[in-house]
Amino acid sequence: MAKIECVFDASGYKVGLGEGPHWDDKNQRLLWVDVFDRSDETKGKTLHIYDAATGTDRAIKLCSFVTSVVPRKNKSSSVAVTFERNFAFLDLETGKLEIIKTVDDDKQRNRFNDGKCDAVGRYWAGTLGPEPVPTQILPYQGSLYSLDVGSSNVRQTHKEISLSNGLGWSTDNKIMYHIDTYERKVFAYDFDLVSGSVTNKRVAIDVAPELGWPDGLCVDIEDKVWVAMYDGGQVVRFDPSNGAVLRSVKLPVSKVTSCCWGGKNFDELYVTSAREFLSEEKVKNEPLAGSVFKVTNLNCKGMRANEFDG
Fold first, then answer.
1. 165 is in an annotated binding site
2. GO BP, one example (predicted)?
3. What is the per-residue pLDDT across 165-210, written as a single tens digit (0 to 9) for each?
């Protein structure tokens, strides 16, 4: 039976939108972000660094909404991030953001969402359109981008994405997975690691509404896809070859946002969550909303997360 532990209790800190977990294997720590809390502008805009050995969490307050984070190769004091419409570097000591490239110049109300690196070290991230009403996104305004290794060259690979979310790759790096939450689908692409080209877009997983909204994802060593279910209170393991549900891990929060493999053996599943848009009554029923959880005893493991090579 899966064991669930709360490793960061957000009940006092009141995390608005926990997202983007990335296990930093070199330092045995979890990087994650609190994007924002629209009910309290003093909250959010924070990068968190959770030290697994000590159980402590360091919060770095930022000037903007950072939505994803990945370590940089051989740059221990700096990480690569996405914020607003920018790929950027963040100095972990000073909190200074250095913009590398800005996208969607023709759609200045767009913003980046989830992002990850492939095995070569390219940084992939997608955008989403504006929200005239919170949670109601203007559809088909976003795109999927990749920031090339060692340069500021950005390629736009796909357009007309509504709510770009989780990304991941098969163990042989021949398939890339990408979630469009608005569509309730996990898409698969044929992926060429050398060139970074993505072709043959198709639906790998069509998520049933009763499971929740598909948000972040990660892939295990058996090439099964784990998807965090926003408003579903669970992480679900799918077989991407046929879309079948293989198992579900229930969490004590409803707004589950993302997941990643961590620990020394990559057999610990770290899961982020949100409290944004929960009523006061629902928060009372979910005091851990916004917290970070560690799930073990899964008899499953993942792979080392990739860093940005630049």
1. yes
2. L-ascorbic acid biosynthetic process
3. 999 999 999 999 999 999 999 999 999 999 999 999 999 999 999 9
Is 215 annotated as a binding-site member?
yes
158: helix, strand or coil: strand
pLDDT tens per residue across span 55-81: 999 999 998 999 999 999 989 899 999
Statement: residue 42 has pLDDT above 80:
no
Cα(247)–Cα(175) distance, rounded to whole angstroms? Answer: 22
Instruction: Please indicate if the annotation marks 210 as binding a ligand.
Output: no
Whether residue 19 is annotated as binding a ligand: the answer is: yes
Between CA 10 and CA 48 the distance in angstroms is 12
Catalytic residue among 24, 57, 114, 215: 215
pLDDT digits (tens, 9 = 90+) for 109-131: 999 999 999 999 999 999 999 98
Spatial distance between the Cα atoms of 63 and 155, rounded to a whole number of angstroms: 27
Q: What's domain 3-296's architecture?
A: 6 Propeller (2.120)
pLDDT, one tens digit per residue, over 84-99 is 999 999 999 999 999 9
Q: Was 113 annotated as part of a binding site?
A: yes
> 177-183: long-range contacts (C-beta < 8 A, 24 or more apart)?
177/204, 177/217, 177/219, 177/225, 177/240, 178/126, 178/144, 179/114, 179/214, 179/215, 179/216, 179/217, 179/227, 181/213, 181/214, 181/215, 181/230, 182/137, 182/139
Greatest Cα pair distance in the chain: 51
Residues 6+ apart with CB under 8 A from 252: 4, 233, 286, 288
| Sequence letter at residue 147 | L
Q: Is 267 annotated in the active site? A: no
- CA distance readout (Å), 228 to 43, 88, 156, 231: 23, 26, 26, 10
